[in-house]
Write a sequence for this structure.
């Protein structure tokens, strides 16, 4: 090979790595399954022997830990597979081994538009069985728009269910407490407003609201060791945020933001305002974060208690070290595709779902 050809080849390979077209060589990544049609979320069951994965068209598939498909359920729900909508997040009840309740969110079609809804069913894998399917909550965030459903779920230590709802493209509603647009909701495991919610004593505010002023939160995780709830949300052009979510807080959207209109024009001249909570971390330019987990495991020993975030647009796995509830740096790992969800297995490996028509379940370990 001539010297000039070697140089060209080197530059070609360098640019491919730099632009994230190959997986990061600091990690050992195994593809367990590459036949998942637009997967959105996952939940590991039975001590990590199987995983439940939602597909946007309305199915839940069961894979074993080697990635082999065991079974597929089709949910009989009014799922709107439109725009950013479909069957979305999935989480287990904290007492799943005893009661087998599984919770999932979806974009629901109504006569007046679409909204974010939460359903649950009893699901077992040995044998595969789904019973008692029911929708337990439909957000008061109905719009003709087919984007910004939010739709992440998490339970806290008191078995209260947190639900993120995006602003549905109607940004000013995120500041109003008479609706569910741009909110984090806190419900009982049966779908009722939880006791002790910040506006539960108000006659003119919705009792299910926990926090507000959000744009499109697609990452939510509860850290049981520190009793903290972490959320991330999409900004527009820049201004993706990580927030520590607390009762009654206003997180600013759209009155205070680091993001701009997609045209480049200002949305607000303010990045912070009195009475509104500034983000713990933000990204400019946007990475389009989706999915989040907290690492506690044996394989990445130096990552205990740190946040792991997937990125769609930037095709990344991002590690965010947390110290005293603050984030001051990040570490980026280039991936080969848009990352929709991130989870930590009982084996200490990191698992990720790619956002593709032939989506993948990836197992990530130290090199």
């Amino acid at each position: 090979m001539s010297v000039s050809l070697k140089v060209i080849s080197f530059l070609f390979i360098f640019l491919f790595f730099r632009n994230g077209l190959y997986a990061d060589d600091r990690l050992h990544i195994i593809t367990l399954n590459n036949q998942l049609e637009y997967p959105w979320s996952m939940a590991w069951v039975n001590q990590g022997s199987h995983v439940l994965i939602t597909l946007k068209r309305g199915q839940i598939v069961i894979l074993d830990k080697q990635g082999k498909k065991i079974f597929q359920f089709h949910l009989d729900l009014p799922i709107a597979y439109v725009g950013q909508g479909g069957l979305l997040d999935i989480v287990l009840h904290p007492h799943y081994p005893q009661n087998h309740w599984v919770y999932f969110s979806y974009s629901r079609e109504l006569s007046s538009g679409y909204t974010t809804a939460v359903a649950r069913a009893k699901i077992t894998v040995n044998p595969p069985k789904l019973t008692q399917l029911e929708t337990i909550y439909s957000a008061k965030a109905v719009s003709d728009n087919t984007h910004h459903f939010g739709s992440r779920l998490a339970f806290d230590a008191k078995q209260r269910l947190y639900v993120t709802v995006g602003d549905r493209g109607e940004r000013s509603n995120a500041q109003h407490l008479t609706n569910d647009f741009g909110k984090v909701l806190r419900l009982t495991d049966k779908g009722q407003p939880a006791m002790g919610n910040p506006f539960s004593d108000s006659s003119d505010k919705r009792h299910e609201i926990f926090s507000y002023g959000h744009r499109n939160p697609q990452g939510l995780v509860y850290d049981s060791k520190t009793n903290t709830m972490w959320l991330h949300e999409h900004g527009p052009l820049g201004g993706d945020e990580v927030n520590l979510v607390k009762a009654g807080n206003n997180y600013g959207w759209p009155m205070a933001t680091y993001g701009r209109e997609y045209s480049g024009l200002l949305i607000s001249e303010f990045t912070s305002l009195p009475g509104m909570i500034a983000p713990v971390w933000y990204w400019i330019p946007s990475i389009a974060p989706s999915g989040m987990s907290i690492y506690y495991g044996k394989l990445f020993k130096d990552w205990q208690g740190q946040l792991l975030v997937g990125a769609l647009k930037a095709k990344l796995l991002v590690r965010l070290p947390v110290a005293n509830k603050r984030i001051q740096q990040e570490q980026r790992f280039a991936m080969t595709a848009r990352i929709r969800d991130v989870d930590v297995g009982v084996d200490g490996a990191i698992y990720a779902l790619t956002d593709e028509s032939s989506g993948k379940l990836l197992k990530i370990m130290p090199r």
User: Anything to note?
Assistant: Helices lie at 3-18, 96-99. The CA atoms of residues 102 and 331 lie 33 Å apart. Residues 1-21 have pLDDT under 50 and may be disordered.
